[in-house]
Amino acid sequence: MESDEASETARMSGDSQRGSAVNGDLLHHGLMDDVDRSIVDLLLEDGRAGYAALGGRVGLSAPAVKRRIDRLVAAGVIRGFTAVIDPDPMGWSVEAYVEVHCRGTVSPERLREAFARVPEVHSAATVSGQADAMLRIVAHDVRHLERALEQVREEVPHVDHTDTAIVLSRLIDRPGVLSRPTQ
Known about the structure:
By secondary structure, the chain is an alpha+beta fold. Helix content is 39%, strand content 16%. It is built from 6 helices and 4 strands; from the N terminus they run ααααβαββαβ. The chain has helices spanning 2-17, 34-45, 51-58, 62-74, 108-116, 142-155; strands spanning 94-102, 121-126, 133-139, 159-166. The chain has a 4-stranded antiparallel β-sheet with strand order 2-3-1-4, with helices on one face. A hairpin with a 6-residue loop joins strand 2 and strand 3. Helix 3 packs across helix 4. The protein is elongated. The two termini are 31 Å apart.
């Protein structure tokens, strides 16, 4: 582990010489290495893992892992740590994807502000294609979903119509993105 610690120290001092790239996009500036990716993968598996446990898996000491995680947080690679809740036991048993079609042009910022006022909207994105935006809505039941859809139509300026697909089964639900692109 000593050679790993020495290379970590050299790497950290090299990072400080590279300036603002450390605070920018680590992956695209070549500053996110395989150990960083392994740490991200392990945190996606268990966000509560301690520095020592992570270090044991990647071959670094707890302080070295903490420095790397702090750097990943500062660079925006890790945006936060949160609990992942299963909506079903919480009584949120209906999930739907909703295409929002608007008349005319509505800015993404206006859409974001409007969607944020609807608590049942768990995620929203502008998309290519015929729809202007795609929402993921979670509700207690179908009536609750219908009220949420009505609120979306009221809050979003110039809504022409929405197309809704109710989720029957969640097949894959990853808590984050893969840190390693597949080839």
